[in-house]
Specification:
Shape: globular
Strand order of the largest sheet: 2-1-6-5-4-3
Number of helices: 5
Largest sheet: 6 strands, mixed
Oligomer: single chain
Helix content: 25-40%
Strand content: 35-45%
Distance between the termini: 49 Å
Length: about 130
């Protein structure tokens, strides 16, 4: 299921991601991302898909996840992964993530996301502002 999540994310396929989630999924972004206006947690399948897959953060076809390792225990899977992409504004992006997925049956019920958010927001802003003259 975790590998299916990453494959759907690579393809920017919000519908495929939605099929992996419970109706009331809870997604916990880092506190520093919440300070940038992202809800913490994002609650509900529709809200999550709209927040993360309804917004263009990366140029289409440039997102690629590499799973470094998966660790399982009980109803959770921890995934260490690297995302390589081009931000919507044109900046290159490579960042390491750790996600902890909690399952209810075969669906993702809760996710905790860990990444370098300062780097994410720095790269996101590149190319979105006019260049100095």
């Amino acid at each position: 299921m975790v590998r299916s999540y990453y494959a759907a994310s690579d393809a920017s396929d919000g519908a495929a991601v939605a099929a992996l989630l419970t109706d009331d999924v809870r997604w916990w972004v880092p506190q520093s991302a919440a300070a940038q206006g992202i809800p913490r947690p994002v609650v509900g399948r529709e809200q999550l898909i709209e927040s993360f897959w309804g917004t263009v953060r990366y140029r289409p076809g440039t997102r690629s996840w590499t799973i470094e390792r998966l660790i399982t225990g009980g109803d959770c899977v921890a995934a260490q992964a690297t995302l390589t992409a081009t931000m919507a504004g044109g900046a290159p992006y490579t960042n390491q993530y750790v996600y902890v997925f909690r399952f209810e049956g075969s669906q993702i019920a809760e996710v905790w996301e860990y990444l370098d958010t300062a780097y994410f927001f720095q790269q996101k802003e590149k190319g979105e502002k006019p260049l100095p003259t």
